[in-house]
């Protein structure tokens, strides 16, 4: 698929003119993103792309473009996020010294009613793999790295495949000190503001009417952490979000709710603890206590895994550099 190249240039010829249009994007926006992310200069003539610049930059750009073209051949989309992920993936694997063979293409794809979700970084891939292989998984890292999104996607896929009977989603309602009575409305109206990110993720994977019906039939439960006490959560996929705001006692209580046939994902950002000063985060302590327990998976995300607006990555890195992570 490649034409002859010179020592300072790499020429790539793509077979399909139709796929080439999608690869380049509107006004060649995708090519501009690849240029910016790899440092290579990209020129296009028909279905031939010419890469110029340092050898390493050209190789990076070629790997990225071939990966994106492969997505199109597999009838997948190429959007801004996909381009960013393709740029990051090969460099991160190289930088982190991964020695294991890469996953077969599509092996970690998560299939839901509305979309197929794919990991967009090595850490995300490791997290999904851990969710599929372990009954209890911790995802730790900054906002925007896909912890909650991927966990909810796996939960929905497990439910659709019949591997669990229900989905249970929970968060600590620390903004109100768990004193939900100070908020107006009935119980659902009181807790919904804290649970909105979980509703948003569910609506990305299931039709809105199906989500509502499943909530009415208790196939999906969304409740504050305080409501988990005394329960045994069997045959369910259980997610605790914003777990850095759980106290040590709450974390221990929640972890011991795990019942037969269930999976549990605990997600949080240790750098964003909102507990009262002097209160130890249950998430931080759980990582120390459970790190070496067999069958429990831990995935650490960093700023490189941020998949929101590119500015979020810059913000996270700036705070990390300032020593305030």
Describe this structure in words.
- The chain is α/β, with parallel strands linked by helices and 325 residues long.
- The protein is built from 11 helices and 11 strands.
- The chain has helices spanning 17-24, 29-38, 55-73, 80-95, 122-133, 147-160, 187-205, 208-216, 248-255, 282-290, 310-321; strands at 9-13, 41-45, 48-52, 110-111, 116-117, 136-140, 166-171, 220-224, 236-240, 263-268, 296-300.
- The strands form 3 sheets. It has a 6-stranded parallel β-sheet with strand order 8-7-9-10-6-11, with helices on both faces. Strands 1-3-2 form a 3-stranded antiparallel β-sheet, with helices on one face.
- A hairpin with a 2-residue loop joins strand 2 (41-45) and strand 3 (48-52).
- Helix 2 (29-38) packs antiparallel against helix 3, helix 3 (55-73) packs across helix 4 (80-95) and helix 5 (122-133) runs parallel beside helix 6 (147-160).
- The longest helix is centred in the N-terminal third of the chain and has 19 residues, at 55-73.
- It is elongated and about 65 Å long.
């Amino acid at each position: 698929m490649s034409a002859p190249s010179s020592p300072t240039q790499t020429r790539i010829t793509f077979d399909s003119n139709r796929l080439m249009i999608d690869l380049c994007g509107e006004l060649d926006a995708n090519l501009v993103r690849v240029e910016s992310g790899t440092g290579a200069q990209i020129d296009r003539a028909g279905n031939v792309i010419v890469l110029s610049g340092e050898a390493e930059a050209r190789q990076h750009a070629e790997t990225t473009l071939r990966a994106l073209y492969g997505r199109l051949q597999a009838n997948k989309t190429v959007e801004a996020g996909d381009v960013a992920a393709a740029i990051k993936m090969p460099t991160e694997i190289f930088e982190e010294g991964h020695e294991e063979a890469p996953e077969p293409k599509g092996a970690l794809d998560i299939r839901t009613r509305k979309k197929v979700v794919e990991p967009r970084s090595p850490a995300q891939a490791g997290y999904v793999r851990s969710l599929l292989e372990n009954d209890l998984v911790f995802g730790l890292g900054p906002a925007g790295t896909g912890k909650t999104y991927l966990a909810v996607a796996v939960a929905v896929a497990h439910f659709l495949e019949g591997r669990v009977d229900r989905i249970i989603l929970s968060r600590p309602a620390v903004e109100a000190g768990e004193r939900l009575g100070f908020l107006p409305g009935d119980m659902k109206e009181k807790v919904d503001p804290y649970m909105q990110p979980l509703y948003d993720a569910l609506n990305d994977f299931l039709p809105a009417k199906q989500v509502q019906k499943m909530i009415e039939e208790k196939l999906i439960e969304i409740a504050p952490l305080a409501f988990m006490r005394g329960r045994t959560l069997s045959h369910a996929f259980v997610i605790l979000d914003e777990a850095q705001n759980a106290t040590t006692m709450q974390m221990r209580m929640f972890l011991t709710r795990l019942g037969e046939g269930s999976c549990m994902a605990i997600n949080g950002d240790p750098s964003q603890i909102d507990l009262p000063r002097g209160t130890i985060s249950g998430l931080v302590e759980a990582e120390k206590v459970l790190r070496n327990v067999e069958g429990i998976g831990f995935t650490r995300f960093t700023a490189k895994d941020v998949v929101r607006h590119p500015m979020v990555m810059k913000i996270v890195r700036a705070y990390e550099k300032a020593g305030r992570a």
